[in-house]
Amino acid sequence: QVQLVESGGGLVQAGGSLRLSCAASGRTFSRYAMGWFRQAPGPEREFVAAISWSGSSTYYADSVKGRFTISRDNAKNTVYLQMNSLKPEDTAVYYCAARRTSNGGNYYYTEADFGSWGQGTQVTVSS
Questions:
Q1: pLDDT tens-digit profile of 67-79?
Q2: Which of 1, 57, 26, 112 is nearest to 49 (CA)?
Q3: At a CB cut-off of 8 Å and minimum separation 6, what does 66 contact?
Q4: Which residue among 49, 62, 64, 82 sits deepest, i.e. has the most Cβ atoms within 10 Å of its Cβ?
Q5: Distance of alpha carbon 98 from its chain centroid, rounded?
Q6: How confident is the model at residue 1 (pLDDT cuts 50, 70, 90)?
Q7: 23-78: per-residue pLDDT in tens?
Q8: In the Cβ-directed half-sphere of 102, how many Cα atoms lie within 13 Å?
Q9: Positive or negative, the Cα torsion across 40, 68, 29, 105?
């Protein structure tokens, strides 16, 4: 398992941008597919974006497509979420998640697919 630490959250006005980072420990980060999820007040965590360990495949929730970009730097053991054109409804705690996989092109987008989670970082978008 990898240990994950998110950073980069904060308060931003609607229309602004933030870049979240998720730093992973461990030497095998490059064999982990990664995902970002978010949770607004309430019981459910929502999928946001996913990336394969090779970086060749990405997948986005419809609600963020065209505004958010997921990327990774395996040399730095870090995955990023660039968030542009932020809306008040993007307000949530954002979590990164990791799943070890042998297929470099696979991505995952359900909570049950991921075995490692960070502690979350708060993103607040004011109107």
A1: 999 999 999 999 9
A2: 57
A3: none
A4: 49
A5: 10
A6: confident
A7: 999 778 889 999 999 999 888 899 999 999 999 999 999 999 999 999 999 999 99
A8: 0
A9: positive
**Total count of residues recorded for the chain:** 127
Phi, psi of 82, deg, nearest 5: -85, 120
Query: What's the start-to-end Cα distance of the chain, in Å?
Result: 39
Residue 80 tokens, joined: 């990023």
